[in-house]
Write a structure and sequence with these properties.
Blueprint lengths: L1 E5 L4 H11 L13 E8 L2 E8 L2 E9 L3 E6 L9 H15 L2
Antiparallel strand pairs: 1-5, 2-3, 3-4, 4-5
Length: 98
């Protein structure tokens, strides 16, 4: 699943905000029962491991010039919740950048 959240900020500011608010990413998962571990793989990529609903998901957040792109490997068993998760990521991702 790929969700792009547009922004008009300099990359350094996006990195700062993501770093400062990375604990808020757990709230992106509907139901609020997620455990999220993050780390910076590079200057423009944060990796994530998300444990929720009995599943472990992996993904990353890429900082692009005009968008923050959330990529999450969603297993087939959870594909039915993809619209709900992508909507939450888009909505909360915008708030994360403000």
């Amino acid at each position: 699943m790929r969700v792009a959240v547009p922004h008009t900020l300099p990359k350094a500011e996006v990195r700062r905000r993501l770093d400062e608010k990375q604990g808020d990413i757990a709230g992106f998962v509907p139901g609020g029962m997620a455990d999220v571990e993050t780390s910076w793989a590079s200057e423009d990529r944060m990796t994530m491991t998300i444990r929720a609903m009995g599943q472990e998901l992996t993904g990353n957040v890429d900082i692009e010039d005009d968008a923050v792109v959330f990529n999450i490997a969603l297993p087939l068993a959870l594909s039915f919740v993809e619209p709900m998760i992508s909507g939450a990521i888009e909505e909360k991702g915008r708030k994360l950048l403000t």
